[in-house]
Structures are given as structure tokens and as C-alpha cells.
Design a protein that fits this description.
globular; alpha+beta; Pyridoxamine 5'-phosphate oxidase-related, FMN binding protein; Pnp Oxidase, Chain A; 38% strand; 3 helices; seven-stranded antiparallel β-sheet
Length: 134
């Protein structure tokens, strides 16, 4: 796994909605706008599954995900790729569920998706577009 640098970590609380992409086992893409995404540590992202039906089906058969980070308050633009696992019980799941219940008790917080970051790519236009950052 790889660790995000300081600028990348600073971007997370500035994002309001995260485009999160998954693909089915046969490669059919799916992207959803998610607000319940957080940086758990330098190399791990937590995503709360409230209503992610297609995405969860995809992750169960193909755990690779991509998350796009960009906005007017963010330095740069980057894409995070990682491998996801799903938790429906245990300490991490209970921690996420308690946090969601405090913030938004009306949401179901059905599952916790834990993404271990594997790569980060540049996505701003120019000669370095698409290059691997870490």
C-alpha cells in the first residue's frame, strides 16, 4: 500500500462529494457521487454504504476502486486507486456506524467499505496528465 502526501491528505476535508468508480466482474463501469467518504489514515479510505447497490455488487466481485479528488479549494487534481473490502460487523464497522448515527441518524450505514490505497495518479491537464504520483 502507499501513503498519501500532505497536500493529498489536506484535500479530503475540502471535498463535499467524491466520485467513486467501480466495475463489475465483466468490466462494466459504474461511478457514484458519495459524501460519506473519509481518510481513515495515510493509506486507508473509509466509505459508508448507505445506498450503494450497484457499487457493492461490483466490489464483491471486483474489489478495485478509483476515487477522483478535485475542487476549487484543492491543490491539484488526483485519482486514487485501491482495493476495497467490505465490513458488516466488528470494531471498524461499529466505529463507522456510531459516527454516522451521530451525524446523520436517518442513514442506514449498512456496510463499511475499507479501501487500501495502491496508487495515485495526476489528473490535471498538461504534459504530466495521467502520470503516477505514488
Amino acid at each position: 500500500m502507499v501513503k498519501l502526501n500532505a497536500d493529498m491528505k489536506e484535500a479530503f476535508p475540502k471535498m463535499k462529494v467524491f466520485p467513486v468508480a467501480t466495475a463489475s466482474k465483466d468490466g462494466t463501469p459504474n461511478v457514484v457521487p458519495l459524501a460519506m467518504v473519509s481518510l481513515h489514515d495515510d493509506e486507508t479510505i473509509w466509505i459508508t454504504d448507505n445506498f450503494m447497490n450497484k457499487s457493492m455488487t461490483n466490489i464483491r466481485t471486483n474489489p478495485k476502486v478509483a476515487i477522483y479528488i478535485w475542487g476549487p479549494e484543492i491543490k491539484g487534481c488526483f485519482q486514487i486507486k485501491g482495493v476495497a473490502s467490505i465490513k458488516n460487523s466488528g470494531k471498524e464497522y461499529e466505529e463507522m456506524k456510531a459516527e454516522i448515527n451521530r451525524k446523520r441518524p436517518e442513514l442506514p450505514a449498512r456496510s463499511l467499505v475499507i479501501v487500501k490505497i495502491t496508487e495515485v495518479f495526476e489528473c490535471k491537464p498538461g504534459p504530466t496528465a495521467g502520470s503516477k504520483l505514488i
